[in-house]
Automatic annotation (TrEMBL):
Its EC number is 3.5.99.6. It comes from Neobacillus massiliamazoniensis. This is Glucosamine-6-phosphate deaminase. Signal peptide: none annotated. It comes from the Bacteria. Catalyzes the reversible isomerization-deamination of glucosamine 6-phosphate (GlcN6P) to form fructose 6-phosphate (Fru6P) and ammonium ion. The keyword Oxidoreductase does not apply. PROSITE patterns: GLC_GALNAC_ISOMERASE (PS01161). GO terms for biological process: carbohydrate metabolic process; glucosamine catabolic process; N-acetylglucosamine catabolic process; N-acetylneuraminate catabolic process. InterPro entries: Glc/Gal-6P_isomerase, Glucosamine6P_isomerase, Glucosamine6P_isomerase_CS, NagB/RpiA_transferase-like.
Length: 241
């Protein structure tokens, strides 16, 4: 794993954004795996600004997101569909039919998981996957204990994940209890991965990732055996390491 140490959130967003733009420009029809949460917002702002200033085009880019809550009504501002539209897609020249996010309202969620897994292959696999990390080491919504050979599946969200994500909702009771997420094996199939981390809340998880053992109790440790992972982390996230 390669580590890029940056000073703060702004710097993390700029470094990751710059690298992404270089890759998009050299492969304008690439497949980007995207993440939600507060961590990648600055990177998305960088991409939007670069698109305006330098006309980097997303016309032929495809995106596929890691996860989505189950049961949030269509158009709910906390759904990852809305998050992606508001924070990225609506500000680029991307074709909306080329952006994919699991359907957390599908009638048959098992069929939806299988469809999504097949879709990843059908669009050519993921060239570059962006990841944040949960305080408990989750990637996507793969909570501790998830099998490393897991594919897209339904998860029961860990209580600490619901508490951490409740800051976006009116109350903890409003945070969904379940989600659909790409599995760990689905993520590891990506040809390249950027893991972003900012802030002291992530320091323990990052320390665990860099020094810890390979264990399904710590989902991010699956990345240790991937050939092309870059961690872009700020000083605060690297304090324990
Ligand atoms: C959610 C998302 C993850 C994300 C994590 C961390 O649980 N499903 O993909 O990495 O939150 O969020 P944040 O970046 O807000 O700390």
């Amino acid at each position: 794993m390669k580590i890029i140490r940056v000073s703060n959130y702004e710097d993390m967003s700029k470094q990751a954004g710059k690298l992404m733009v270089e890759k998009i420009r050299s492969n304008p029809s690439m497949v980007l795996g995207l993440a939600t949460g507060s961590t990648p917002i600055g990177v998305y702002q960088y991409l939007i600004k670069d698109h305006k200033d330098n006309s980097t085009s997303y016309k032929n880019i495809k995106t596929i997101n890691l996860d989505e809550y189950i049961g949030l009504p269509f158009g709910d501002s906390n759904s990852y569909h809305d998050f992606m539209k508001n924070n990225l897609f609506n500000h680029l020249d991307i074709q909306h039919e080329n952006t994919y996010i699991p359907n957390g309202n599908a009638k048959d969620l098992d069929i939806e998981c299988a469809r999504y897994e097949t879709l990843i292959q059908e669009i050519g696999g993921i060239d570059l996957q962006i990841l944040g990390i949960g305080e408990n080491g989750h990637i996507g919504f793969n909570e501790p204990g998830t099998a490393f050979d897991s594919r897209t599946h339904i998860v029961n969200l860990a209580e600490n994940t619901r508490v951490a994500n409740s800051r976006f909702f009116q109350s903890i009771a409003d945070v969904p209890t379940h989600a659909i997420t790409m599995g760990i094996a689905s993520i590891l199939d990506s040809r390249e991965i950027f893991l972003l981390a900012s802030g002291v809340k992530k320091a323990q998880a990052i320390a665990c990732l860099m020094t810890g053992k390979w264990s399904e109790d710590f989902p991010a440790s699956a990345l240790m055996h991937h050939k092309n992972v870059t961690i872009i982390a700020d000083e605060d996230a690297l304090t324990v390491f």
